[in-house]
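ok so i was messing around last nite and threw this chain in just to see what happens. nothing serious, just curious
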Amino acid sequence: WLDTELRKRCQLAWILHQYLAIDESMIRCTSRFCVFLQYMARKPIKWGIKVFCLADSEANYMFKWSVYTGGADWTVANLLDSAFDDAGYVIFMDS
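result:
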């Protein structure tokens, strides 16, 4: 509930610029009880919760995010909905 409400408020509080970026982040977590804990050997934060973010590139504002839970049906496209279709946004992402 808290994640959903916070995400909704962040989207209401900001009007996006034209240039957007999708990137991954790690939230440091060493809990043994987290079922979707990720390990990434080459990152500064080795253990944590992986979050994919849609951010406004001009203002550095994280507009939308999604926690990666490791499911086969999860894609980065979950961050993009029909509001971004033919709206003139330029979206960048790395591999």
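not much to say yet. The chain has a mean pLDDT of 82.
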